[in-house]
Specification:
Layout (H helix, E strand, L loop, with lengths): L17 H15 L7 E4 L9 E4 L5 E6 L7 H17 L3 E7 L15 H18 L5 E2 L1
Parallel strand pairs: 3-4, 4-5
Antiparallel strand pairs: 1-2, 2-3
Helix pairs in contact: 2-3
Length: 142
């Protein structure tokens, strides 16, 4: 398999911005996923309630995507993710999976006493799991 590195900052703007282009790319990939028979795909505009798009399954459950065109993951970006998750949990009570798309690979060297992006991801997922449980929801954060 040929590995072609992606240059995210070379992404052609769509509707005036690379951020919108990244959101659109993620939504198109989500729409192309095969879903269960009878599922309905919904694409949202801004403001989006923490969700770019989602599949509503026949059961009523929802699998949602949120895209953030970040070039780093600092406190400010984690705060934005927290806000999106909080909105999604509030606005989508049938959410069972929440897929967060960022154009980054999370460092995970597993070094004692040091914290990297994957460590922060795990901490945030634990917090989001608690938020979901407080709403009597079980959501897989991917």
């Amino acid at each position: 398999m040929l590995h072609v590195p992606l240059e995210w900052h070379a992404l052609r703007p769509w509707r005036g911005s690379q951020h919108r282009a990244f959101e659109e790319l993620c939504a198109q990939l989500a729409a192309a996923e095969s879903a269960a028979p009878g599922a309905v795909f919904e694409r949202k505009g801004a403001p989006d309630g923490g969700v770019e798009c989602y599949w509503r399954l026949v059961s009523g459950d929802e699998r949602a995507w949120q895209a953030k065109f970040f070039d780093s993951l600092d406190d400010s970006q984690w705060k934005q993710l927290d806000e999106s998750v909080s909105k999604a949990l509030e606005k989508h009570p049938h959410l069972v999976e929440y897929i967060i798309c960022v154009p980054l690979d999370f460092a995970d060297p597993r070094r004692e006493g040091q914290q990297f992006a994957m460590d922060r991801w795990r901490q945030h997922v634990a917090k989001w799991d608690d938020w979901a449980r407080e709403r009597n929801m079980r959501v897989e954060f991917t």
